[in-house]
Design brief:
There is one protein chain. By secondary structure, this protein is mainly beta. The chain contains no helices and 15 strands.
Length: about 200
């Protein structure tokens, strides 16, 4: 079907053809239990993006975090996220990853888990999120969440390099370490009606 592009002068150009944009993310997580209540870990990530036939990019990033887990279901974590390379769609389209500090808290009881997080972007902006999930005997689960895209500290308007606000609904399944998660995004921004799929293995 036809789709619109913009030339170097900002003039829309209509092109006849078919193109399907896409985003893919791959991650490997490692963690180490230092004591009965303290763990350290890292996530290594590779992301690829296709916005147009000639607009493709990839980037590497890492997250580093520490987590405290109590004996009564409460967990608290602190980390630094998205430390990595820049995203380059072309010579004139180079963007830094949205690096940020993340603080999170989680509480679980009888299969139900409630999570909250607060992110401070190095671009002097805030994001936050809350979510709840329920799992039946660790085999199947349902989840709901809300992400707040935030605002720039000391000003108004959209935050550069941040994820827009959205609601999400999800389902998950797990068996012998293998898990599959599906989520549907409800939003008024460009990410509306997005379906994400995550496949992972824990050992």
């Amino acid at each position: 079907r036809p789709y619109s592009l913009v030339d170097d002068n900002g003039i829309p150009q209509q092109v006849n053809g078919t193109f399907r944009p896409g985003e893919n993310n791959f991650a490997l997580g490692l963690s180490c239990l230092v004591t009965d209540w303290l763990s350290l870990g890292a996530n290594l990530k590779l992301g690829t993006s296709k916005l147009a036939p000639e607009a493709k990019a990839s980037a590497f990033a890492a997250d580093i975090y520490a987590a405290y887990k109590s004996s009564f279901g409460l967990s608290v974590g602190l980390g630094v996220c998205n430390l990595g390379t820049k995203v380059k769609y072309g010579p004139e389209s180079i963007y830094a990853l949205p690096s940020y500090l993340r603080a999170g808290v989680s509480y679980g009881i009888m299969g139900l888990r409630v999570n909250g997080e607060l992110d401070y972007l190095f671009s002097k902006a805030l994001m936050a999120g809350v979510s709840a999930s329920w799992w039946y005997k660790e085999y199947a689960g349902l989840s709901v969440g809300y992400h707040y895209g935030g605002g720039k500290l000391g000003g108004s308007g959209p935050v550069p390099l941040s994820i827009p606000s959205y609601f999400s609904l999800g389902v998950g399944a797990a068996f012998k370490g293998l898990h599959l998660d599906l989520a549907y995004v409800l939003s008024t921004s460009a990410i509306k009606n997005t379906i994400s799929c995550t496949i992972g293995y824990r050992f």
